[in-house]
Write a structure and sequence with these properties.
513 residues; single chain; 14 helices; alpha/beta; 25% helix; 27 strands; 19-stranded parallel beta sheet; 3-stranded parallel beta sheet
Length: 513
């Protein structure tokens, strides 16, 4: 006699089952409730919901990527799933509601009323985290979804993220968000009151994180009276003319304006003594005087990530530990005086970095990454200057060098230089070498070994077996590099992998994916 099958899942405690269902895409959970009444009861008490109605071919930009399998293009099933999730929900509180809709796909005259009803249901259940993204592909800002004003007086919301919405805030709009800790405004159209974001933020006295990205019709952003604000991001809001910041607890600040049309006046009203990380991307309008005035206001700054078009860049700071630098001018002059710097990442033209060799203080430096762009504007790779820089950073533990090389002529070392070159640098412990494909593979390793002999060498040769073969031939004659690791990209084909493995087995070296 066959034993009866036992439904062990249904025997689990309801709390465990709800936890399991919370990890399943919401639209799948909505279907599962049809299996039995017990599952329907569990569905009605889930703490959060996430729904995505988009084209399957849509390319997401993190952190907007939905969970795998959580995209649907069946409009009727989507609407039914959201309706049943929110209108049947029996908990007094809803932890999270995330709605991501392609409004061009829905295309109904009652779309706004339907979305309003979903938001009303979430507010009635005291939602804590509300994340709304209403995608419009036609680019018409006037057809963006108009957010209901009642959202601005939802006292239980702690996280509010709005993407591609319209905000109509007047002087009389009641803003009362006492529990809000995080506010993200992305691709928002501001209209009505002349400073809607400022008025919105003024009603969030305990806010800790504020982001405005790609917002339109926003000319001023004045942040003040927020004693708990710790993180501020302002990214590509091209119509901004003025930013005033008075946030004594600010620890992280990012200002990003790439290819801006108008300059923006940025003022820190008080010293930000708690600011640890500052990201400044402005390739046109940042001036030397303005930058120096900022550094003075950040006495405890530890991380600086900077892209600018200044002709003279002088960075002097005693507390700075990490510097990511991207100068956009080929003739920029760079001076670095940072005695406690531990990590340096440089992406740009060769001349600015070469100009900094004499000034850079590297006693504490442990990690360096160099990526020279537009090397084709010169006829050679800066071997002498790079070698001098290697000598300056001889205390460094890890060195990363990305070589953009177009031809072997850029790497060939003339005989007259070989006669006067000093011995290679032997103090660098590890060198990571990444190379773009070129025709002079053997010259790449030869040039690197004229500059330094690291204790270990990791090489990423792309998908060029000839580079690997040339490297093995040259490095096989060198005794100073004790360990060589070749890093093969995961997208390398099976044939390339087999050729790599065969050559590495003969050389008795290590191959890593």
């Amino acid at each position: 006699m066959e034993e009866e099958e036992i439904d062990r899942i249904s025997q689990l405690p309801d709390e465990v089952l709800r936890r399991i269902l919370s990890l399943v895409p919401s639209k799948e959970v909505a279907r599962a409730k049809l299996v039995s009444k017990a599952w329907q009861n569990l569905f009605e008490f889930l703490p959060s919901f996430e729904f995505f109605f988009l084209r399957r071919t849509f390319e997401f930009i993190p952190p907007r990527s939905p969970p795998p399998g959580d995209i649907t293009d069946d409009m009727s099933s989507f609407i039914n799933a959201v309706d049943s999730a929110l209108k049947l929900h029996k908990q007094l509180t809803l932890d999270q509601l995330k709605l991501c809709l392609d409004l061009d796909l829905i295309g109904s005259g009652t779309t706004s009323l339907m979305i309003d009803s979903w938001i009303d249901a979430a507010l009635e259940r005291n939602v804590g985290h509300l994340d709304l993204w209403f995608l419009r592909r036609d680019g018409d800002l006037d057809h963006l979804y108009l957010l209901p004003v009642k959202v601005f007086s939802a006292r239980t919301i702690t996280d509010l993220c709005l993407d591609e919405c319209r905000l109509e805030i007047s002087r009389d709009t009641n803003i009362d968000l006492p529990g809000l800790r995080k506010l993200c405004l992305r691709r928002i159209q501001c209209q009505g009151y002349e400073q809607p974001v400022q008025k919105l933020v003024s009603g969030c006295p305990l806010i800790q994180e504020l982001e405005t990205s790609f917002c339109s019709r926003m000319q001023w952003l004045h942040v003040s009276g927020l004693p708990n604000l710790q993180r501020l991001r302002v990214v590509n809001c091209y119509e901004l003319e003025s930013i005033q910041i008075d946030a004594p607890s600010l620890q992280y600040c990012q200002y990003h304006l790439y290819h801006g049309v108008l300059p923006c006046d940025i003022v820190f009203s008080s010293s930000s003594e708690f600011l640890k990380e500052f990201i400044l991307y402005d390739d046109q309008y940042i001036t030397e005087d303005f930058f120096q005035s900022l550094l003075v206001r950040f006495p405890n700054l530890e991380i600086l990530d900077m892209m600018c078009g200044m002709q003279r860049i002088e960075i002097s700071h005693n507390r700075l530990k990490r510097l990511d630098l991207r100068p956009t001018r080929a003739d920029a002059m760079l001076k670095i005086d940072t005695p406690n710097l531990q990590s340096l990442n440089y992406l740009g033209y060769r001349m600015p970095l070469i100009s900094a060799i004499a000034s850079v203080n590297t006693l504490s430096l442990r990690e360096v990454a160099i990526d020279f762009v537009n090397l084709n504007i010169c006829s050679y790779f800066p071997i002498l200057q790079s070698k001098e820089f290697f000598e300056k950073i001889r205390h460094c533990q890890d060195m990363k060098l990305h070589m953009h090389v177009k031809s072997k002529q850029q790497l060939m070392i003339p005989e007259r230089l070989r006669e006067i070159l000093s011995p290679p640098v032997y103090y660098i412990k590890h060198l990571y070498l990444t190379v773009d494909n070129c025709s002079g593979y053997q010259y790449i390793i030869d040039s690197v070994l004229w500059m330094c002999h690291p204790q270990t060498l990791s090489i990423s040769p792309g998908t060029a077996p000839m580079f690997l073969k040339s490297s093995i031939t040259i490095l096989g004659t060198k005794k100073n590099t004790s360990s060589v690791v070749f890093l093969v990209p995961p997208n390398a084909g099976d044939i390339i992998w087999k050729r790599f493995k065969l050559m590495m087995m003969k050389a008795k070296w290590k191959l890593t994916e």
